[in-house]
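Quick check before the chapter quiz. The format below is the same one you will see on the exam, so make sure you can read both the input and the output lines.
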Amino acid sequence: MSGHLIADETDAPTCPPGSEPLHTWPRLEAILQKPLSLPRWVGWRLKAMVAIVVLAWLAPCWSLRPWVLMKALGIAFDDRVEPFTKPVNYDEFRAFSPTGQVPVLLDADRVVHDSLGICLYLAERHGGVWPDDEAARAWAQCAVAEMHGGFAALRNACPMNVGVRVRPKPLSDAVAQNVQRLQELWSEGLSRFGGPWLGGSAFSAVDAFFAPVAYRVRTYGLDVGAGQAWVDHIIAHPAMQQWEAEALAESWREASHEEELRDAGDILADYRVS
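Here is the expected output.
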C-alpha cells in the first residue's frame, strides 16, 4: 500500500473555493504524470503507506487537521507545499483532487479527500485517532462532526492566520453564539474526560479538528472561558509549534487572504517574514 496526502479544504463553508493553502513537495503534477515512485516506506500499523500532505502554513485551516493528527500520533509521512496562487485554484487542484480541494490523501491508487474522510480512513488503519474510552469516543465523534459542518460564522469573520494578531470588529450575534458554543463544548470535554486534551489524557482527532480554531482564538483574542487551558496546551504541542514556525518563515502572500484579514479588524502585530 502506498499513498499521498494533499491538503486545502474548500469543502468547508468558510474557505473560498480552492482555498486554504497546503503543503507539497516540488509540484504534485510532476509526481502524477508518471508512475508513483515512493521515496520511503512508512511504518503504519497496516502495511506501508507514504502520505504526502499538500498544505500551506500561513492561511491554512483544513490542511492543518490531518497534518497535526498524523504528527501527534507519530504516523510518518512526507508533505509538499502547494501555495495558493489565486483566490480560486480549482482547475489546478483538480490535477490531484477529484473535488479540486484539499486535503487529499493519495494511497497508491486511492484518493481519500476531505479532512473528515481522511480522519476516518486513518482510524481504520492506526490506533489513537479516537479516544479509547467509549463515552469519550462518542463525544469526540459528535464534536468532530459539529466542527466539520458548523461554526461558519466564526470561520468567515475570523479567517485563520497564525502570523498576525488582530483586534476583531464587534462580534455579530452569530459569531458570539459560535464562541459561546466553543466555551460549552471545550469545557464539557475537559471536565467530563479529565483533560488535558478534549477527549481525555491523549491527543485525538477531536483536538486536531479544533486546532485551527485554537489559532483563531489566539489571533483574535477570543474569550473561550475554561477552554483557554486547552488552547494554550494544544498551541504548545511540538507539532503545532512546527507548523507555526514553518508558517512564519513563508514569504508568499495571497491577495484575497490579506484582504480578509484587513476586513476582520485592526492588525495589531504581524510576525510573518516580509
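If your answer matched, good. The mean pLDDT is 79.
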